[in-house]
Here is the input.
Amino acid sequence: MKQKTGLITIPALALVLILGAVAADEIATLRGGTPIAEQAELSAIPQVVDTDIRSKRNYPMQPPLIPHDTRGYDVNLKVNKCMSCHARQRIEESLAPMVSVTHFMDRDGNFLAEISPRRYFCNQCHVTQTTTRDVTENEFKDMDELLEERAVSEQDD
Ligand code: HEC
Ligand code: HEC
Here is the structure.
């Protein structure tokens, strides 16, 4: 009995090792297969999209993408650069869209006089875009596209 388990474990172990080696080769890294000890060829720093054109939202709850550069915009204990334009009191001058009412709500749904601490760190949710290829393939489909596909497949039935 003892011997039998031994016989099974060795091939199983070998298989695990082989599969492990294959998986390690296929891990997607930003180094693109360059060995750790070597310096990969440097790619250009991608340009931040700074068109000032508000982009489409992919679903109703999406935090809108930032259509302008934010380099050097500090958000810390003392200052919030974003609010210097996006605060209620600032939009007349800045012509920026005001942070929406949800940004004033606490977790119980009460409206606060100031922006809620839950919404203080803007970049947690809002991001800029760069003119570069996607790191991984993106198969996201807009809800409208899904509904259209369903309507077509129901027609076929
Ligand atoms: C100097 C003023 C200014 C500052 C500072 C600023 N913004 Fe803006 N922001 C604007 C203006 C103006 C727009 C409207 C589009 C445009 O002109 O770029 C805008 C647009 C946006 C939008 C798009 C809103 C939508 O509905 O599509 C987001 C999100 C945003 N800003 C987030 C931020 C964040 C986060 C920061 C801080 C890291 C920031 N902004 C700092 C002026 C500013
Ligand atoms: C926890 C995530 C989160 C954080 C943090 C956050 N936002 Fe938002 N923001 C959203 C979402 C989601 C929306 C779209 C739905 C809504 O209005 O609540 C939005 C909408 C906006 C809009 C568009 C408002 C409109 O009416 O078109 C602006 C401008 C904005 N946010 C700016 C900011 C700024 C500036 C900060 C930092 C002070 C910030 N947000 C922090 C999630 C967030």
Remarks:
- The chain has a mean pLDDT of 86.
- The two ends are 58 Å apart (CA to CA).
